[in-house]
Design brief:
The chain folds into two domains: 12-171 and 259-300, Rossmann fold (3-Layer(aba) Sandwich), CATH 3.40.50; 175-256, 5' to 3' exonuclease, C-terminal subdomain (DNA polymerase, domain 1, Orthogonal Bundle), CATH 1.10.150.20. The protein has 13 helices and six strands. The chain has helices at residues 18-28, 42-58, 75-79, 92-107, 120-133, 171-175, 182-189, 204-214, 217-222, 235-244, 246-256, 278-288, 292-303; strands at 12-17, 62-68, 111-115, 137-141, 155-159, 164-166. It has a six-stranded mixed β-sheet, sandwiched between helices. Helix 2 (42-58) runs parallel beside helix 13 (292-303). The protein is elongated and about 70 Å long.
Length: 306
């Protein structure tokens, strides 16, 4: 995998789960915003306000905005065709706005990542794996629980909308398991949002109890015969479920694990936020019919950054 080298240890890299904030804007902004062609751009306007607020609050020098474009073409679909099959595709009026949002993030000087095989989680995980080798402090900007598996003492997650930040030490209070157990936790209980099957009949409490005793999924499956003797409610039936669905648990583990080998920038310059191009930004704002006040705020803020 390409590596990121030569970055000062004191720097902080912000890895934004951008699609999440596009969807938030889509649901929160009124459908009264249109581009010069009369097409709806409410999500873009909301996303623009998020970007401006983010830059103003963080003054970030290293930023990645990772977008999902692999809803049905992810490598996980090859492993399990039903992966995310329960999700409806984005409506056309939103799908068109995603390209605008990628263009806007790039105009703000962010590194924009999107891949037809790897999801935004994988792109973030791969950048994190590289930055971690070179001492960067990293903040994942997302509310997605799946990112718990990536956290450690030097990697935080930031639920931007709620203003909450935590590292690996904060995962047990949120999920009931250690950060290193999040993948196996999802493998056992499944994830309805992503259509990861898990083990039928095992929920969050049972999964957490099993992992508290055995530590990880591989050890649990190797020692299933011990499960009926645990002081866990329904221990005997849990053992039966695990025996019947061990292969499904292993498959779910593969689906839940965030990849670390996605294509990422090969040099430190690929993560550094570059100066905004005033001409590109102006043209984009004009096309999106962004209000003069917001446009002036963007120019004022971005001219002084990074």
């Amino acid at each position: 995998m390409a590596s990121v080298t030569g970055t000062a240890p004191a720097a902080t890299a912000y890895l934004i789960d951008a699609s999440m904030y596009v969807f938030r804007a889509w649901h929160s902004m009124p459908d009264t915003f249109f581009d010069v062609d009369g097409q709806p751009v409410n999500a873009v306007h909301g996303f623009a306000h998020f970007l401006l607020d983010f830059v103003e609050r963080t003054h970030a020098t290293h930023v990645v905005a990772a977008f999902d474009i692999a809803l049905t073409s992810s490598f996980r679909n090859a492993i399990y065709p039903a992966y995310k099959a329960n999700r409806d595709p984005a409506p056309p009026q939103l799908k068109r706005q995603f390209q605008y949002c990628r263009d806007l993030a790039a105009a703000f000087g962010f590194t924009v990542l999107a891949d037809a095989t790897y999801e935004a989680d994988d792109l973030i995980g791969s950048v994190l794996a590289a930055t971690r080798r070179h001492g960067l402090h990293t903040v994942i900007v997302s509310a997605d629980k799946d990112f718990g598996q990536l956290l450690d003492a030097d990697t935080e997650q930031w639920d931007y909308a709620r203003g909450q930040r935590w590292n690996a030490a904060g995962v047990p209070a949120r999920l009931g398991v250690q950060a290193r157990q999040v993948v196996d936790f999802l493998a056992l209980m499944g994830d309805a949002i992503d259509n990861i099957p898990g083990v039928p009949g095992i929920g969050a409490k049972s999964a957490a109890a099993l992992l508290a005793h055995f530590g990880d999924l591989d050890t649990l499956l190797a020692r299933i015969d011990e499960v009926p003797f645990l002081r866990v409610r329904g221990a005997k039936s849990l053992a039966e479920k695990l025996r019947a669905h061990a292969d499904m648990a292993r498959l779910s583990q593969r689906l839940a694990r965030i990849a670390r080998d996605a294509p990422i920038p090969a040099t430190p310059a690929g993560l550094v936020r570059h100066s905004a191009d005033a001409g590109v930004l102006d043209a984009l704002c004009a096309r999106l019919r962004i209000a003069p006040f917001t446009r002036a705020r963007a120019h004022q803020l971005l001219q002084a950054e990074p």
